[in-house]
Amino acid sequence: MVEKRCPRLQRDGVYRWFSELPSPQRVEFLCGLLDLCIPLELRFLGACLEDLARKDYHSLRDSEIKANNPADLGSLTNLTDEVVRSKLLVSLALLGSAHREAAGVLFRTLTHIDSVINNYGLQLNEGRTGDEFLLLFTMASNHPAFSFHQKQVLRQELTQIQSLMASTGKNPSTSTLNTMATYPGCHKVTPRSETPINSVSNSLENVLHTSTHSMEESIPKRPSGKHSKAAAILGRG
C-alpha cells in the first residue's frame, strides 16, 4: 500500500539514503542488488556501465595496466603505508574479473593483515586507517577475480577487522540490513539533487585521494549529472 501511494518518495528516499552511505556499505549494497537481478537485467546494466566506463578509459588505462600486472602488484605489500593502501584500492577497482594471477598476488598481500596488526601495532582506530581496511576487504571479498575460497577467507578477515574496530572503540560501519531500516518512507523528503554529494567522509573518492597524487596519475572526476551517482563506486564528479 505504501509503495503504491508514493513510489516517487520511496525512490528519492533510497537515492538519498544510498548517497550518504560510506563506501564499504555502498559496495556491499550494490553487489547485493546485482545478485537479485535476472540475466537480461544484468546484460542491460552491463551495457550501461560499459558506456559510463568508456568515458574514463584513456585516462585510467595506465593505472588499469598496473592493476592487472602481478609484477606491479607485488611491490604493494606494506599495508602500514597509507599510500600503498590507496594504491591497492585503485588496483581492486580496476582489476579485471579474469585476472586470477593478479588477484592471487593481492590475496597474499591482504591475508597478511594479522601479522601487520600484531607485529607492527597498526591502530585501526587512527584516522581513516580502519575505514580503508574495511573498504579494501569489502571490495576484495566481493570481487569476481578471486576464487570462492579466497573470498571466504577475505570475508573472515573483514569480520575480524570489524570486531577489532568495535573492541577499540571505533564502531565499524553498520550492516546494510540494519541501515536499511532508516529508509525514508512516505515522509516529506527533499527531492534528490543532481549535484554530487561531497560530504561523505568515507567515500571511495576521498580514500583514493592519497593515491591519485602519489601515483602522479590523476583520476578525473565525472561531470555532475544523473549518471554521476550511478558510477559513484569509481569516483563521483
TrEMBL record:
Family annotation (InterPro entries): PHAT_Smg/ZCCHC2-like, Vts1_dom, ZCCHC14
Residue ranges of every copy of the SMAUG/ZCCHC2-like PHAT domain listed in the record: 60-164
Residue ranges of the region described as Disordered: 213-237
RNA-binding protein vts1-like alpha-helical domain: residues covered: 12-55
Pfam families hit by this protein: PHAT_SMAUG, Vts1
Protein name: Zinc finger CCHC-type containing 14
Record lineage: Eukaryota, Metazoa, Chordata, Craniata, Vertebrata
